[in-house]
Amino acid sequence: xxxxxxxxxxxxxxxxxxxxxxxxxxxxxxxxxxxxxxxxxxxxxxxxxxxxxxxxxxxxxxxxxxxxxxxxxxxxxxxxxxxxxxxxxxxxxxxxxxxxxxxxxxxxxxxxxxxxxxxxxxxxxxxxxxxxxxxxxxxxxxxxxxxxxxxxxxxxxxxxxxxxxxxxxxxxxxxxxxxxxxxxxxxxxxxxxxxxxxxxxxxxxxxxxxxxxxxxxxxxxxxxxxxxxxxxxxxxxxxxxxxxxxxxxxxxxxxxxxxxxxxxxx
Amino acid sequence: xxxxxxxxxxxxxxxxxxxxxxxxxxxxxxxxxxxxxxxxxxxxxxxxxxxxxxxxxxxxxxxxxxxxxxxxxxxxxxxxxxxxxxxxxxxxxxxxxxxxxxxxxxxxxxxxxxxxxxxxxxxxxxxxxxxxxxxxxxxxxxxxxxxxxxxxxxxxxxxxxxxxxxxxxxxxxxxxxxxxxxxxxxxxxxxxxxxxxxxxxxxxxxxxxxxxxxxxxxxxxxxxxxxxxxxxxxxxxxxxxxxxxxxxxxxxxxxxxxxxxxxxxxxxxxxxxxxxxxxxxxxxxxxxxxxxxxxxxxxxxxxxxxxxxxxxxxxxxxxxxxxxxxxxxxxxxxxxxxxxxxxxxxxxxxxxxxxxxxxxxxxxxxxxxxxxxxxxxxxxxxxxxxxxxxxxxxxxxxxxxxxxxxxxxxxxxxxxxxxxxxxxxxxxxxxxxxxxxxxxxxxxxxxxxxxxxxxxxxxxxxxxxxxxxxxxxxxxxxxxxxxxxxxxxxxxxxxxxxxxxxxxxxxxxxxxxxxxxxxxxxxxxxxxxxxxxxxxxxxxxxxxxxxxxxxxxxxxxxxxxxxxxxxxxxxxxxxxxxxxxxxxxxxxxxxxxxxxxxxxxxxxxxxxxxxxxxxxxxxxxxxxxxxxx
Lengths: 266, 629
Prior knowledge:
heterodimer, A: 266 residues, mainly alpha, two-stranded antiparallel ribbon, 11 helices, flat, B: 629 residues, alpha/beta, Rossmann fold, 6-stranded mixed beta sheet, 20% strand, globular
């Protein structure tokens, strides 16, 4: 049933990575992703890969879970590979008609694919090891300094957590309405594109009305519970940097130093 | 008059509330000159039908709405003064009807913390309050769960925990049990009573008289005014007035009234079954020798002329009619190849598995076989999660069985011989809260949606729609061009049901068609279903939690438990098994329950009564006929 779907892709486990403060993980992931763009050789990727492998090992998230994240973007990876392979100018290795494969093309194709894969697996480690709710809390706290420049940090985080809360509710609602309309003879599967788009109206109109009703109800319930924006609001979970966070920061710094050395000096 | 006493936790003085209606910009007066006080630590129930202004009143207590005239004081604070807004909302917490739409966070304990967080309380104190509140509503063990994995009753208890974590002196609950199943209702009512005992003032808005009877004061509202105000005894003694307001009268009160008409002198203060039964048994013991009254013959039937009385008589009558051809449930199972023309529905060895092959695979329905006779009225009962919904979705092909077969009018719907569209036409399925599926600009267009999907011409469809709209009791000319969204709750539901009726199904399945409605709409919808069955000569399958309705209406009852068909029998036989039913989380019709209570107290009565009428006749027989002891 729909209610069994897992939200986000959090993998519950007890590990040093899971215990890290969400801010550390968000900032760390951000830095790691930047580092991938600095890399200019396969040697650099080897370092990045080793670092990521270490993190995955420590996080206790099974590797199969990690690689699952690659599945939906497989087409994009393939596309990148082919595009790079055929479109890069250089020494021709093989050609057929207007298609040619160059030495540089093969190199850059592999290069881009490795970078893309590392980017995806690296960022899914964040979502796999952090509860969605901690993630939004972390984002809120990290964005706080920008609040003085008019960035609605609290509101954005609130919106994200409400969205997380109501995705299952709306999915259930969709399922219900769809079945109700199917019981009235609706057909969502056959017909041409236009007919199919039209057949969605009986689904989308009630769904939007439901969403608005939920929003109105929720707004009233929040008001009744004294919600008045982010000012003077305290939190149940206090965010605190612990020793683990220091260790993580140190490890990350060492990784970055090695990578910079490898890229720019050697 | 004591309503100027601002010492009380809530003081309402000449409250008037008006708003502009969206469609026609007309000014509507939702509350008109209401004054009363609520004492500290009391338990007040506010009752009224839909549109009586009770929810509006509740929102005025919480300063979610502000008075158009008069004033509301909470703990001495005037709700119109903005500087007291947060004090007021903290003093008078509020719980709403829909358990889903009031939880903010995707983790239970974070949700309970939401209120205290808004009040700016220190994290350590929030933690203490969260744990304490969750323990008080018996939900501590679920603190790390996500709301969408909880039942309705559990979610509503989380909502209550979220309110009491703000340490309010008063909790206002706006129909907190309207959307819950009987089990959830019982849990929530127990928590409410517990909080009351702990000293919190309770204001409970409800449709259910049995819930109101647990309060120490009942206020009845109608058309924005207070009509009755007093202890449950005082209020229930105005049975006739309650009926004229289209409200329910508790079973014991109505029974006592009828008995009084037969010169059995039940004291006015008796308003619950327990005391009534005790009184009847005691009176029997005392005046045993003198009860050789005049031979009154058969007990008088329903003499009262109130609408409600007539409604029930009508239902009783139609029940009696259908009993002439009692649909015997067949013990022999439907065998392949031998399709019987007499049956509208034949299900054989049905099994359904959700998420087959996945780690969270679950068997929702297992080895279910039954038959339903043509033009009979069958009911499916079972607690939430017993497989009822899964079962009925097989009957019109929305779900495909993993094993077994489903035959409608002797043809197997999954064999490929019949087109899916044809199955959908033959078997109409009205889901819970069907009004949420309305989508067209006008009522007529919406009702035409089904017939058009079946390939009818515009003209044919409109003809069917007209008939369906009239059959559900709406005025076709008046309503056809209106937007379905501008209708009242009861009307919306009728339009949604018309949308299924217009397809002229041979079997009509209704999943909790009266859920969330007030007593009047509830009765009206049931009468409407009866009428549809009579006029269209169709088979009805009703899914319901209301045992009273099932007992009155059904010829055949299917009892589901844990995905299996636990029993398939006529209502008398089903409800004779009271103890086993309670083991699987099901109750009894009020009449049967009462007769059982009498019998347990030693009265020599049969317990087969299913309706008020039958129970009444049995008691009279006992009282008149017995000369012993």
